[in-house]
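Course assignment 3, question 2. Fill in each field.
Student: A.L.
Task: Predict the tertiary structure for the chain below.
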Amino acid sequence: MANHNNRPNPDDRSDNVEKLQNKVQDTIENIEAAHDTMQFASPEEKEKIVAKNRRREEAISGMRDEIKDEAHDQQ
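Answer field:
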């Protein structure tokens, strides 16, 4: 029996800035951990780590732009 009272949850963006800031911090920690593991990595693995960290840095840049947008929208 289907429930016909299904409604989407309201869009609550009040904590988006905080969530994004936490994601940035987690990503920075991942970059640092990857740098630590590079000393034990083969040359091929090092290339992969460098490429992944580059993508992480791009993601951080995007998240920081989104943080600015969200903070502006909350004002």
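Instructor remarks: Helices lie at 16-38, 43-74. The chain has a mean pLDDT of 91.
Grade: pending
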